[in-house]
Design goal:
The protein has about 450 residues and is an all-alpha fold. Helix content is about 75%, strand content about 0%. Bound molecules: tryptophan.
Amino acid sequence: MEQGRGQWSSRTGFILAAAGSAIGLGNLWKFPYITWHNNGGAFVLVYLVCIVAVGLPIMMTEVLIGRRAQRSAVGAMRAAAGPLWSWVGGLGVATGFILLGYYTVVAGWTFRYIFKTLQWSTGGYTPGTSSGEAFSQFVSTGSIQVLLAGAFMGLTVAVNYAGVSKGIERAARVLMPALLAILGLMLVTSLTMKGSGEALRFIFTPDFSELPARGILEALGHSFFTLSLGMGAMITYGSYMSRKQSVVKASVAIVVLDTVIAIVATIIMFSVIFSQAGLRESISGSTAGMLFITLPELFYTAVPLGTILAPLFYVLVAFAALTSTISILEVIIAYFIDEKNWSRHKASLVCGSACFALTVLCALSLGAWGQLSSFEIFAGKQGLFANLDHLVANWMLPVGGFFITMVAGWIMTREATKKELVDETTPRWFHFGVWRIFIRFVAPGAVAAIIIAVLRGADFS
Ligand code: TRP
């Protein structure tokens, strides 16, 4: 039975797949943008503190809950804390469904930009082509949006369909090294640009008078999103992990990889942006702006070897997004396999299609379909896409994360968690007692602070 639900074939296999889940649009698309918005240095420092104090302990917790039960999120929560708590896993499955619904839309854009940059690199680029207007027109063309998102969903389903080690792990083994190589190449190039000194100063010199108050909570909220925490993705991946592997070491590796990539992506983007006089002021006011409007233009006007790097860069974004969509879909699929006895093939196809139905609606909510694009549930959020993103990032992930820490810190016995974290594989620096303090007090306290802040009107999406 255990063999039947699949297992990672090696330790690196698990680490690459889990790091692939964590490293995604959150690192390349959201993090540089919120760093910009919160004025750099001090925000980055606060973010690093959140990653270490909250993200890392919860990462260990999700992985341990999954590995202990060898079950999907719902079954694992039941095994950890009894049937009364299985709804926390159910909330995770529901969150995954919504998250995949809109994440796939942005992921699909990468295909268009790979195609476009190949065209520009071979046929020539006229400055001004990648404008805000051109972008709005692109996102509001329904047929193209549905087509791109559909292609991305199809690719995701194909990987999950092939299985844990033969699909997910194999994809991560190819895509992650490629991603690291492309990013390394871009880092070296960007450091030769004249804006790089200013970029490094912006990112690494903290000035707390520049940090807006909401930045602290934004950093905390983002640490959940970027590490794929709060909806059982790491519980699910942990459930395919071998008992011979150290939960502590693997969690540290995943968190370090995710953090390094986020910082490197930010160094690259700001080095490019700061190299162009006047651009600092004119950065468009949206996340989409930096990655899909400003950067394409800069590749062709400012970056050395831009004609080669531009298509490679969007390949990188596509790879990062794909290893993340795979992990979100896997949370849903694993639930149906473990709890409803579906075959993997049936689960992949049915869940993929169901998510795609939501994706179509999200894809049409960026201007193509008037009513879907304009309604407002959360203040200031227009259309289905924006409202779902707000719901997931501000509500569902923090609430899920809160109850996961509650279960691990207060419901599960000390012995049950200790058995997973402490054995002969555990590194010497790890102190179980410290972890337990973080998981009982620090992490839930911080998460409760996010939830209270959200209730009082903050927004981290
Ligand atoms: N961490 C991914 C990113 O940074 C997104 C993601 C994948 C995710 N799986 C998740 C977020 C599960 C929350 C929960 O883009």
